[in-house]
Every structure is written in structure tokens, then in C-alpha cells.
Design brief:
The complex is a heterotrimer.
Chain A lengths: L5 H18 L5 H25 L16 E9 L4 E7 L1 H22 L6 H20 L3 H10 L1 H10 L5 H33 L14 H5 L12 E2 L2 E2 L3 H16 L8 H8 L2 H26 L1 H6 L1 H21 L3 H20 L4 H32 L10 H4 L1 H14 L6 H16 L1 H26 L15 H19 L2 H18 L16
Antiparallel strand pairs in A: 1-2, 3-4
Helix pairs in contact in A: 1-2, 1-4, 2-3, 2-4, 3-4, 3-11, 3-15, 3-21, 4-5, 4-6, 5-7, 6-7, 7-9, 7-10, 9-11, 10-14, 11-14, 11-15, 11-21, 13-14, 13-19, 14-15, 14-18, 14-19, 15-17, 15-18, 15-20, 15-21, 17-19, 17-20, 18-19, 18-20
Chain B lengths: L11 H7 L1 H19 L6 H24 L4 E3 L4 E3 L1 H28 L5 H18 L3 H19 L6 H32 L4 H10 L5 H17 L8 H8 L2 H26 L4 H24 L4 H21 L4 H28 L15 H4 L1 H15 L5 H15 L3 H25 L17 H19 L1 H14 L9
Antiparallel strand pairs in B: 1-2
Chain C lengths: L4 H21 L3 H25 L6 H33 L13
Helix pairs in contact in C: 1-2, 2-3
Classes of the chains: A mainly alpha, B mainly alpha, C mainly alpha.
């Protein structure tokens, strides 16, 4: 087991499959799609094996500010600047990796069942995106993480730019510019904190110190938040360097999530992209922002995180309420789902910045739930648009009569989407709200408003589409085909399963969640027991 | 008051060996001119083959020199630096020349410009660039610049039947002469202030003084302006778009890459290492020019509709990024960053221009944005290569451009010049607009019945050059340690003696 | 009054400035070429002046050798320039620089 680099395999299998596709002729659509499904299936198999082999108690045995990673691989990459090829899995990235493998498998299955323009191009890009997103989740070295984080944009650019509606060019460039702007700010911050940590390791024997991009090293370096001199801009004393660095990281992650007011790229690109792209684009990419907040934001900047807790929590609440209101005002059902997505992601960020175990635990569960629900919703929207040729809420009604199977599945998805008890997102949202309440009751009450609004727009959508008398021109549409139903069914089953039996997620993640909460509430160099007082 | 004679006691063979790559190429230059007389017009591709053999031999000599120059020394009475820094740059220049020569025969045949002098002139320019990269004396710097410039003047006007090409050549010549004049005046003043033309001696004579001699400072300013012209940094850039657009594309490919690399090498050697004791006097100006270049280059590129002009403005912006490495002198990380950037820029930009060269059909040069619309539907691999180069220019991983930018920004932050890094990322975001716009055009399906540009078929040599550039761009983006280690080693050995990298 | 380095530097700067002014103001390509030559010659005067009257540690041969190189290279540049001008003249019957203005953007 230990001799095989499983985590590297998770990266190599999609890349290798992508290379394999290049050997197939462009016209062999069937073979191309089958190979892609096989590749993503293989990744899903490896990830499932990793989760089964995951040692749930390993994290609890590491004291202090450690972050326990399993299945680690570490090789020298650029020795001159201390960057290494360092992969590792923890309870957080484990579940997200499972989600990642699942959404790409669904993406591959969906595309294999419909006629796609230039399948070879599409499948290659899908596999490259899978490798890049998996790399983001697996890397434990800041430079390697950034490499995958930015590299992810390259295949996404081609997919969004080549597949989508007439508005895709503008939407794609907007998406890339937004995310790249945030990421570049983060790059400057990464460079800055590594040089700070380097100076702190300087000694008589090694006057310039050791440069390292390793996450574990940087977590334990007191230098990152040590500099207390405020940076002066145009003569005004502003924030400390560590606070600026945290804001740079937060900008990158907040754009990716996205939080209001950094969200305007999302409705455009989600509306432009076809359903088979949205399975993985909406399914995993936005979760990576939330992942970054936990894995890098909380761990590297415990002081600034507390300083800006109110800011992030209020942005999260604004996201929840504002985009729920926007969802209410839309006519295009795809846009409704897009805004609903932003609203739900706000809950995740709220949970993360509660900075306690309940909040983080809930955020992890909710990330999985959000991935499942959003993929299912976009698939439903896609099926409806495919049959009726419209996405306008007002032109659709009474589909229940023509599409009983879709009606049933959509009902479960709707209930899951609005957080009905017994469904998966109830568990997640409830845990988040408990954690957030411990941190800040006011924000929690305001966020609760979001769940009320969610009931409103989700139920209105479902009723409007399904009930009411059917409009004449919709008479001839047919129900879901078997393949389509079988694509949706596992997602719906998961929603119910996680709703009634959420424990496995918590069990796997618990040890690491405890570590994240500990790291986020203690300063490096101090023992966690004495340093629970927040902030600088 | 005679020339110091002890320098002449070196065994001349040792000096000759130091110039071996230059001598090989100079010999090949003469041979090519003579071969051209006896080669029938239909077999002129043979001349390209001969040039490639000579370039390969020179490359071998450079690689050998890399190991031999482990202990850096000056040769020819201190006027030429035999060090790893020079070999590093020579390697980039020769590789660029070889790749250019490889794509040239097809392109020149299609454009009806296939004359034998072309290859001889490319080699002459290459020798000039290598002399410039190793020059350790103001005289040799001037000689190198003029040798490369005069060859490139002729090459720019090589399409002698086209108004654009002639105009480009004349503009290049007049503005290049102007720049040379300013550079020379700066050199004369520095000679007057320090009494020497050899860089090591200039450095010695500056060591005692505070560097406030007005003669010296004006000289440094003029010298910098002259260099800024040659590396096409704003605000001394106006010749660049016109010349790049007017010159035959294969020539643009070569000069956009190799000239900039060689001129930057000399700029770094003179400023960062010779004027090392007075960095506080001139780094402010360099930082200013770097910022102006990044802003002007990227903003002007936004509105272009010509591929060559867009890449020209992009090159101006890239010059700004490379200048960051000079502006943070004497931080040795700056030089390493600049060297890495030069290697990355060479691989990427050469690839981008090579795509335009390889695709150019019989009629007009491929130049307007409309000319590449829908390229991905007819030439998927060429389009993918172009997109890859554009992503590298935009600084996305896993390409060379990302690590180049990463290293210069690191140098800026390391030297506590965070504002330079922030200007850098701000302008990078702007640059993504125009690179991606071109990328999207290639992936836009041509409308039914719409005529696309008659792209040439990619020959074996053309495809090979694109593959080599793409491979270089990828290697510099993933196997970073290969070139990074070399760049650190080059910085360690640079003459005049540098500050050590920690 | 003895002629010293100051006088030579003034002459050299004047020549140089005349060259720069000419380059910026003239439109005839031949005149532009002559302006470039004036700049080069201004440099030569400075180089030779420094070599003859410069500070005591100066190496006179460097400056004079430099001047010789500049003269030679200026000649080479003119040869190329005149060749290019001839080609342009044959095609356009003019050497006015502003009538060659196809490249812009």
C-alpha cells in the first residue's frame, strides 16, 4: 500500500487518459467517450479506496498546531527556492476529492450520452480539469497549490469559451479575469509570507534562513503574523502586513466561491455554460474557494482571521440574503439556480468563519451537499430546456403531467435545496447555524432569513414549473429517458442518504476539523491551551 | 601611458577558445556567402542546412564553454567576459537562431524571398548578439550592438518589393542609429568620468568614489536610454510595433526574441554588476521605466487588431517585467529572475511568432486578427500551440511565463519593492484580456461559407519548431529547477564580480 | 586662452544636439541620415577630447581606438542606409520620410 503513490495516481490517471485520447482518431466518438468514462471511473475507484483506507484516528494523536496529512508523498521540486512536490490527504480534502471524482464521473457519463461537438477536444479538457482540481485538493505545498489553482483556468477557458451560448466569449473572459486577478494577489501574498518565514529561520550558521513553501512549515512559523508595523500607504498607516496578506488570500478565495460583491462572473458563466459542463464547473470549482479558506486562510493567518471574522461573516450573510432576493426576481430558471448556488455557498463561508468545530464541520458537509444538489439542479434545468426550448419560468407550467419521473426526482431535489429536515442540506445548514450562533448570534439570525427565502424561491420554482395547467405547446414533450433518470437517481439517493445518515462524513473529517479549529484559534509558537484568546 | 601590456601575455589560444562559438559562426558566415554563389536557386534550403550545422556546432562550443567557464575570466585584455552568464545567454540566442532558420526556407519560398544572404545575415546578427552578451568593454558592447543592428536593418527590409518592409527597415535604421548615438554619448561620458572602457576597470575606479560625478551620472542616464531603445522599453518603444509589423515575419520572430535577450544581458552586466556601487542613483529610473513599459505595453496592446503589433506591444510589456529584475539591483535574485524570464520569453515568444510564420500563405503576411479566426477548426494542433504560447505570455501555469513572472515578482518582494510586484500583477490582469481574446478568436467557428485565411500547410520543420518551442515552454513551466539552477550558476559567475546569491 | 577639455566637450555636445534636433525636425531621409552622423561625430569629438585632455589616469588609446571604431561602423551604417534609400527611391520616387507611412496603429 505504501509503496504505491496513490495520490500521484489520482493526478496521473486523468492526465494519462487525456494523452491516450490523443491516439484515438477524432471521429471515433464512441471510443473517446468510453475511454473518458473509464478514466474518471478509475479515479473514482482510487478515491473510494483512499477514503476507506483513511485512518480516522490518526489526526487525534497529533498534539499542538499540527495538521495531520495521510498518504503523504514528498519529492524535491525546485530545491533552490524550497518548493517541493508534496501531496497529502486530510479529512477535508478527502471528502472534496470524493466530490471531485464524483462530479467528473457524472460529467463524463452525461457527455457520453449526448451528441457533443468535437468530443475529443471536450473529453481532453474535462480530464485536464479533473487533474488540476484534484491537484488543488492534494497539494500541501503553497507553490504547488498555486500552480494547480491557476492551471485549472486553462482547460476551463477552452471549455467555457468553446461550449456555451452566444454570450460565452464575454462570460469566459470575465470569469478568467476575475479569478486571475484574485489569484495574482494571492501569489504576491504567498511570496511575501514565505520570505517572512525564511527570515525567521535565519541563524548564525545559516544567515539568510531556509526558504520553504511547505504548508506545515509555514503553519508553524511565527513569522507570518509577527510583523506588527502597519504598512503605510500614501502616508496613512493601514493594516499589518499579515492582514494585507490574509486579505489577498481572501480575495482569491472569495472570488472563486464567490461571495457578494465578487460574484458577478458567476451568473454569466453559469448561464452560458451547457449542463454537461456545469456538472463539474458548478459542482467542484466554487467549493475550491471554500476549501482554500479552510486549508490556507484559517491555518496561515490565525490572527488576521479573527481580526476580519466580522468582515467575512457579514459578506457571507450578505451573499446569503442578497442572492436569495436576486433568485426571487429572476425569470430564467438557470439564473435562479445560479443565485441559489451563491446563497448556499454563503452558508459554507459563514460556517468556516464561525471558527469553531461545529461551523467547519457543517461547512464540509454542506460543501458535499451543495455539490450534489447543484449538479442535480443544473441537470434538471438542462433536461427541461432540452425538451421545451426555453428557460423562462413564465413560459413553463404543468410539466408534472408530461414528466412524472422528473416531477418526483425534482421534488426531492427541491426539498433538499431548501433545507427540509431529513434531507442532506438540513444537516449541513443546521450544523453551520449552531456553529455560527456560538460565534455571533446576530449574523446567524440574519442568515436564517436566507433559509426562509430559499423555501420561497425553490417552492415557487417547483410549483410554477410542475403544477398549474400545462401550456398548449408543451403537450408533446416526453419524460426523462432511462439513462437520464439513472444519472439523477444516485444524486437524489445521496441527498436522502446523507440526510438520514450523515455520520461517516463527520467521522472521517472530525480529527482534522479539530486541528483546523485549534490552529485557527492559536498563534504559532504558543501552546494551544493558553492561546485561545482571539486576535491581535 | 601605453596600453597595459601584462594583459597581452595571455596565451592567445586561450583567448581564441573563449570566442570559439563566435568564430565558428563567423566562419560559417563567410562560407555561406561563397556557397550562395554556387547554389542554384531551387536548392537554397541547403544553405539553411549548412547554417543549422554551424549553429549546432556553436551550441556545442557554448555548452562546452559552460563547463569550461566554471572559473570566470576576462579575455582579450579585459574586453570580453568568459563566464557562465554569457554562455547562458549565448545558448538562448543560438537556440532562437536555429529555430528561426528551421522555419525560414518554407516561409521565404512562399513569400518569394528566398535568397542566400538571408542565412548569412542571421548568422552575423547572432554573432553580434553573442558578442554583446559577453562584452566586457564599452567598445565591444558598441560593436556587438552595431553588428546585430546592421544585419537586422537589412533583414527587416528583406521583402524589398513591399513598401511595408522597406518602411520598417528605414524606420529601424534611423531610430536605431539615433539610439546608438545616445548610447555612444553615454559611453563617451562614462569613459571621460572613469578613464576606462573595460567594465572591470570602470568598476574598480568607481569603487572609491561616491558615484556623484555629474559626468558619470549623465553618462549612465544616456546609456540607459540607449539600452532601453534596444530592449524596446517604454517610453523608448515607438519603433517596435512598426518594425515588427513591417519586417518579414520570420525576421520578426528572430529579432523580437534574440535582440531583446542579448541587449538585456548587456544591460544587466553593465548596470547591475558594473555600476553596482551606485545602485541607489539609478534603480529609481529603472523601476519607473519598468512600470511605464508594463502599463504602456499592455494598455496599447488592448486596442490592436494586428497580431504582430499585439505581440510587439506585448514584448514591450514583457521588457517591463524583465526590467523589474534590474530595478531591484543589487539583489542577486533580480538577475536570476531576469535570466529566467529571458529564457521563458524566448521559448514563448519565438513560438508565438513561429505560428504566424508557419501559417503565412503566399499572398500577404498573416497579420490581422481576422486571419486566425476559426484556426482551431482547421489546424487544431497549431491553434493549441498558439493558445499555449498565449497562456504562457499571460503568465498562467504550468507554462514558462508563470515561473518567469513568479521569479521577478519574488525578487521585487525580496528587495522590499512590493509596489513593483503589484504593478506587475495589475498589468498582468490587463494583459489577460488581449491574449485570451486572440485565443477565443481561434476557437470561434467560422460562419457557413465564410472564407478563412489561406493558411499554409505546416511542414515537418515548421511543426518541429512549434513542438520544440512548446516543449521548451512546458519544461520551463514544470521542470523549473533545470533552468533555475543554471540561472543561479550564471549569476554566480557573472563578471564583473557580483554579490553572491544567498 | 588654451583649448581644454571644456571647449571640446561643448563642441561635442553642440554637434550631438544639432544631430538630435535634425532627427526630430527634418523629414528628408538623407537629412535624417546626416543627423545621425552628426550625433556620432559629436561622440567622436568627446572621445578624442577625453583621450587627449582627460584625467591623469586615463588611457588615451582606449578613447582613440573607440573613436576609430565609431568612424568605421558609422561608415558601414551609411552604406546600408543608402542602399535601403535607393530601393525606396526606385519604388516611390521620394525620400521624404513622412510619405512612407503605411505602418501605423
Amino acid at each position: 500500500m505504501h509503496s504505491i503513490p496513490w495520490l500521484t495516481l489520482v493526478l496521473v490517471v486523468p492526465l494519462g487518459t487525456a494523452l491516450l485520447l490523443q491516439l484515438l482518431p477524432r471521429t471515433a466518438a464512441g471510443a473517446i467517450k468510453a475511454t473518458t468514462v473509464a478514466g474518471t471511473l478509475a479515479v473514482a475507484g482510487i478515491v473510494a479506496g483512499l477514503l476507506i483506507a483513511f485512518n480516522q484516528s490518526a489526526a487525534s494523536s497529533t498534539p499542538g498546531r499540527g495538521l495531520t496529512l495521510q498518504f503523504q508523498e514528498r519529492h524535491s521540486w525546485i530545491p533552490g527556492i524550497g518548493a517541493s512536490y508534496h501531496l497529502g490527504l486530510d479529512g477535508l480534502s478527502g471528502w472534496l476529492l470524493a466530490l471531485d471524482a464524483a462530479v467528473f464521473l457524472i460529467g463524463a457519463v452525461v457527455v457520453s450520452r449526448r451528441a457533443t461537438e468535437r468530443p475529443k477536444f471536450y473529453c481532453t479538457l474535462l480530464l485536464l480539469t479533473e487533474a488540476a482540481t484534484a491537484g488543488v485538493l492534494l497539494s500541501a505545498d503553497l507553490l504547488l497549490f498555486y500552480l494547480f489553482w491557476e492551471a485549472m483556468l486553462v482547460p476551463l477557458y477552452f471549455i467555457l469559451g468553446s461550449y456555451g451560448d452566444a454570450n460565452r466569449g464575454r462570460a469566459t473572459i470575465k470569469f478568467i479575469i476575475y479569478t486571475a486577478a484574485g489569484s495574482l494577489l494571492m501569489l504576491v501574498a504567498i511570496i511575501y509570507i514565505t520570505f517572512q518565514a525564511q527570515q525567521a529561520t535565519a541563524s548564525a550558521a545559516n544567515p539568510s534562513g531556509t526558504l520553504s513553501f511547505d504548508l506545515q512549515t509555514l503553519i508553524n512559523s511565527p513569522a507570518v503574523s509577527a510583523a506588527q508595523d502597519r504598512v503605510s500607504v500614501l502616508g496613512f498607516a493601514t493594516l499589518t502586513p499579515a492582514q494585507w496578506a490574509f486579505l489577498a488570500f481572501a480575495a482569491a478565495f472569495a472570488i472563486k466561491v464567490p461571495l457578494v460583491p465578487f460574484h458577478t462572473w458567476l451568473p454569466d458563466s453559469y448561464t452560458s455554460a451547457p449542463p454537461q459542463v456545469l456538472t463539474f464547473f458548478a459542482g467542484i470549482v466554487s467549493k475550491l474557494g471554500a476549501y482554500g479558506f479552510i486549508r490556507y486562510g484559517l491555518t496561515l493567518f490565525p490572527g488576521p482571521v479573527h481580526h476580519f471574522q466580522w468582515l467575512l461573516m457579514s459578506l457571507a450573510v450578505v451573499s446569503i440574503v442578497y442572492s436569495a432576493l436576486l433568485a426571487l426576481s429572476q425569470a430564467d430558471i438557470k439564473r435562479i439556480v445560479a443565485y441559489a448556488s451563491i446563497s448556499h455557498l454563503g452558508f459554507i463561508v459563514l460556517g468556516i468563519f464561525a471558527l469553531n468545530e461545529n461551523g467547519i464541520n457543517g461547512a464540509i458537509i454542506q460543501m458535499i451537499n451543495h455539490g450534489i444538489i447543484i449538479v442535480a439542479l443544473f441537470l434538471v434545468v438542462g433536461y427541461i430546456e432540452e425538451r421545451t426550448g426555453t428557460r423562462d419560468r413564465h413560459e413553463l407550467s404543468g410539466l408534472e403531467a408530461r414528466m412524472p419521473w422528473l416531477y418526483a426526482l425534482f421534488l426531492v431535489i427541491t426539498l433538499a435545496g431548501l433545507g427540509m429536515p431529513g434531507m442532506n442540506s438540513f444537516v449541513g445548514e443546521f450544523t453551520i447555524l449552531v456553529g455560527a450562533f456560538q460565534a455571533n448570534p446576530v449574523f446567524t439570525v440574519l442568515a436564517g432569513l436566507g433559509t426562509v427565502l430559499a423555501c420561497w424561491y425553490m417552492l415557487r420554482l417547483h410549483q410554477g414549473l410542475m403544477h398549474d395547467p400545462i401550456q398548449g405547446r408543451l403537450e408533446r414533450i416526453g419524460d426523462l429517458r432511462v439513462g437520464e433518470g439513472l444519472t439523477l437517481a444516485p444524486l437524489v439517493a445521496l441527498m436522502v442518504l446523507i440526510g438520514v445518515f450523515p455520520r461517516p462524513i463527520g467521522d472521517v473529517a472530525r480529527g482534522n476539523v479539530h486541528q483546523y479549529a485549534t490552529i485557527a484559534t492559536s498563534e504559532p509558537g504558543a501552546s494551544p491551551a493558553t492561546a485561545s484568546a482571539p486576535g491581535p | 601611458m601605453l596600453l597595459a601590456t601584462q594583459n597581452l601575455q595571455f596565451p592567445p589560444t586561450r583567448d581564441l577558445i573563449g570566442l570559439l562559438p563566435e568564430l565558428i559562426l563567423s566562419g560559417a558566415f563567410v562560407i555561406l556567402l561563397m556557397l550562395d554563389l554556387v547554389t542554384p536557386p531551387s536548392r537554397r534550403s541547403l544553405l539553411a542546412a549548412v547554417s543549422l550545422v554551424a549553429l549546432a556546432a556553436a551550441m556545442g562550443a557554448v555548452v562546452w564553454g559552460w563547463f569550461d567557464a566554471d572559473h570566470a575570466r576576462t579575455i582579450y585584455a579585459g574586453s570580453f567576459a568568459y563566464d557562465r552568464f554569457g554562455r547562458f545567454v549565448d545558448g538562448i540566442v543560438i537556440a532562437s537562431a536555429a529555430l528561426t532558420v528551421a522555419i525560414s526556407p518554407d516561409y521565404l519560398n512562399r513569400r518569394g524571398l528566398h535568397f542566400g544572404e538571408y542565412y548569412a545575415l542571421i548568422l552575423a546578427a547572432t554573432v553580434g548578439m553573442m558578442l554583446l552578451a559577453g562584452a566586457a568593454s564599452l567598445i565591444v558592447i558598441f560593436l556587438g550592438i552595431e553588428l546585430l543592428s546592421i544585419s537586422l536593418y537589412i533583414l527587416s527590409g528583406f521583402a524589398h518589393t513591399e513598401t511595408r518592409s522597406q518602411e520598417a527597415a528605414l524606420k529601424y535604421l534611423l531610430l536605431g542609429g539615433f539610439a546608438s548615438g545616445i548610447l555612444l554619448y553615454g559611453m563617451a561620458l562614462i569613459y571621460g568620468a572613469t578613464g576606462h572602457t573595460q567594465l572591470t576597470l570602470i568598476k574598480q575606479s568607481l569603487a572609491g568614489s561616491s558615484g556623484t560625478d555629474p559626468l558619470f551620472l549623465v553618462g549612465v542616464g544616456l546609456l540607459f536610454v540607449g539600452f532601453a531603445f534596444k530592449v524596446s522599453a517604454a517610453p523608448f518603444h515607438w519603433w517596435t510595433p512598426d518594425v515588427y509589423q513591417g519586417a518579414p515575419t520570420s525576421v520578426t520572430t528572430f529579432m523580437s526574441v534574440a535582440t531583446k535577450v542579448a541587449a538585456f544581458a548587456s544591460l544587466i552586466r553593465v548596470f547591475t554588476y558594473t555600476f553596482a556601487d551606485s545602485t541607489d542613483k539609478w534603480t529609481g529610473i529603472v523601476a519607473f521605466v519598468a512600470i511605464i513599459s508594463m502599463v504602456v505595453g499592455n494598455v496599447a496592446a488592448l486596442t490592436q487588431t494586428s497580431l504582430k503589433r499585439m505581440l510587439a506591444y506585448s514584448g514591450i510589456a514583457q521588457a517591463g517585467y524583465i526590467l523589474i529584475g534590474v530595478a531591484v539591483s543589487p539583489d542577486p535574485l533580480g538577475t536570476v529572475g531576469s535570466l529566467y524570464y529571458l529564457a521563458a520569453y524566448a521559448a514563448t515568444n519565438l513560438g508565438a511568432f513561429a505560428v504566424i510564420t508557419v501559417l503565412a500563405g503566399r499572398g500577404e503576411d498573416l497579420d490581422s486578427y481576422d486571419g486566425i479566426r476559426g484556426l482551431a477548426y482547421r489546424r487544431p494542433y497549431t491553434a493549441a500551440a498558439m493558445a499555449f504560447f498565449l497562456f504562457s505570455l499571460g503568465g498562467f501555469p504550468p507554462t514558462a511565463g508563470f515561473f518567469a513572472k513568479f521569479l521577478v515578482f519574488s525578487a521585487a518582494i525580496h528587495a522590499h519593492a512590493v509596489y513593483l510586484a503589484l504593478w506587475g500583477i495589475g498589468t498582468s490582469v490587463i494583459s489577460i484580456f488581449y491574449y485570451l481574446r486572440v485565443g477565443l478568436l481561434m476557437y470561434t467557428r467560422p460562419k457557413e461559407g465564410e472564407e478563412t485565411y489561406p493558411w499554409a500547410r505546416t511542414s515537418l520543420a515548421g511543426g518541429g519548431v512549434l513542438a520544440a518551442s512548446a516543449a521548451g515552454t512546458l519544461v520551463l513551466g514544470i521542470l523549473v529547477f533545470l533552468i533555475y539552477t543554471a540561472a543561479v550558476s550564471a549569476q554566480h559567475g557573472v563578471l564583473p564580480v557580483p554579490q553572491q546569491l544567498a | 586662452m588654451t583649448i581644454g577639455i571644456t571647449h571640446l566637450l561643448v563642441v561635442s555636445a553642440a554637434l550631438f544636439c544639432v544631430g538630435v534636433f535634425g532627427l526630430l525636425s527634418r523629414r528628408n531621409a538623407i537629412a535624417l541620415l546626416m543627423s545621425v552622423e552628426l550625433m556620432f561625430n559629436g561622440v567622436n569629438v568627446a572621445l578624442v577630447g577625453f583621450a587627449r585632455f582627460g584625467y591623469s589616469n586615463l588611457r588615451p588609446l582606449s578613447g582613440m581606438a573607440f573613436a576609430l571604431f565609431v568612424i568605421t561602423i558609422a561608415a558601414a551604417e551609411v552604406a546600408v542606409a543608402v542602399a535601403l534609400l535607393l530601393v525606396a527611391y526606385r519604388r516611390h520616387q521620394t525620400v521624404q520620410a513622412d510619405e512612407l507611412d503605411e505602418l501605423r496603429g
